[in-house]
Amino acid sequence: MITVRSAAIVLLLPATSALLLSPTSTRRAVLRDAAALTLAPFAANAEPTAPRRTTQPRCAEDAREERIADLVTLLSTPAPPPVAASDAARSDSIDALLDALCPLNPTPRPGSTEGFAPLAAGRWRVAFAPHIAKLSALGGVRFDPIIYALRPDGSIESNVRYTWLGGLSGWLSTRGRYGSRDEDQVSYVEWEDAWWNPGADAPSADPADGAFAPLVSAMGTAGFVSAAANFPVKYLDRDLCVFVFPLSGTRILAVREGGALDVWRQSSAPSAVSV
């Protein structure tokens, strides 16, 4: 019984013999055409493939580390923050870098209690706040440092040093509580007390020790607006937090004191001396 396979072999034998006896160039051309015809049906039915990459795509962690390294450079050059409102190029560069960094946020639901509880406690220093930079430029006053001290029990204290061009300085402080508004993206801070330490080198621990304590406390409480107390968190890790200030819609960048992005500590650290 002649099968299809044996018939195909019989039919191919004369062609194979002729091919073997033909010149080398002819054999190459015939083999090339035969290969194209043989592979054509498979190529027609094959799934389209993407062009081969020259390098493997980097994982999110590698990309995040690269962005953070760039952020450290922007925050430390030419000098550590605050970033002046007049330094538009630097502000724009930081904003653009945050555009790239925030989608790489490593903390699920960063505004939730579960998200921020392992990371929030500690002292955080504001490194980038465009709305404060504009306020400083308008009033001729410098606000720095701006410190947030968060405790595991949900209490928070803010200490802001102000310095006017005329040499007047002091501290403005508030105390309250923080938590999650929606157990997802939005956190809140609700201030319960405020105090003022004019001319002091450091803020007082007790609000009662501040100047005009009852009046300042009453003014601070009256000035508290709950609608402005919700802060969508866009990025959170152990050393960096990016959240939105609701009244201006701008992003605020805060870094953990003593952490990897504490550019003030890094700039003040003594450099190594070669011997």
Quick summary:
With 275 residues, the chain is of the alpha+beta class.
How do the helices and strands line up, and which of them pair or pack?
Layout: H1 4-21, H2 24-45, H3 60-76, H4 88-101, H5 113-116, E1 122-128, H6 130-139, E2 141-150, E3 155-164, E4 169-180, E5 186-198, H7 213-222, E6 230-236, E7 240-245, E8 250-256, H8 263-268
Antiparallel strand pairs: 1-2, 1-8, 2-3, 3-4, 4-5, 5-6, 6-7, 7-8
Please describe what this structure looks like:
With 275 residues, the chain is α+β, with helices and mostly antiparallel strands. The protein is 37% helix and 26% strand. Helix 3 (60-76) packs antiparallel against helix 4 (88-101). It has an 8-stranded antiparallel barrel with strand order 1-2-3-4-5-6-7-8. The protein has a single domain (60-268), classed as Beta Barrel (Lipocalin).
Q: What profile does the largest beta sheet have?
A: 8 strands, antiparallel, barrel
CATH architecture assignment? Beta Barrel
Structural class: alpha+beta
Number of β-strand runs: 8
* Poorly predicted sequence stretches spanning 5 or more consecutive residues: 1-57, 271-275
Strand percentage, roughly? 25-35%
Order of helices and strands: HHHHHEHEEEEHEEEH
| CATH topology-level fold name | Lipocalin
Strand order across the biggest sheet? 1-2-3-4-5-6-7-8
Helix-residue proportion: 25-40%
What's the CATH C level? Mainly Beta
